[in-house]
Design a protein that fits this description.
It is built from three helices and no strands. Helix 2 crosses helix 3. It is elongated. The chain has 92 residues and is mainly α. It has a domain of 49 residues. It is 51% helix and 0% strand.
């Protein structure tokens, strides 16, 4: 089910909508990287480099449906599960 998220929900956590977008976007990138690392680790565990002379049948991997990364990161942000800070630029 698709629902619209009111901006007031984001403004409860941070008054600056752009900072909220940056935090959620960076967390989404982290989730993507974590999922990619998991996928690579699973593939590495299944490969056997000692038997390069034999032909292996490709096994169909079971599809596991996961939430979209933006949904995951936005829910973490709205539930106040994320810890973040912004660096202050120093004037020269």
């Amino acid at each position: 089910m698709i629902v619209t998220l009111p901006f007031s929900e984001l403004n409860k956590i941070n008054d600056d909508i752009y900072k909220s977008v940056v935090v959620v976007g960076k967390r989404a990138k982290q989730v993507i990287n974590d999922r990619q690392i998991e996928r690579v680790n699973i593939v590495d565990e299944e490969e056997d480099y000692e038997s390069l002379d034999t032909v292996h049948e490709v096994e169909i991997q079971e599809y596991i449906e996961k939430d979209k990364v933006i949904v995951t990161s936005l829910n973490e942000y709205l539930n106040d599960d994320l810890k973040y800070s912004f660096e202050q630029l120093q004037d020269k």
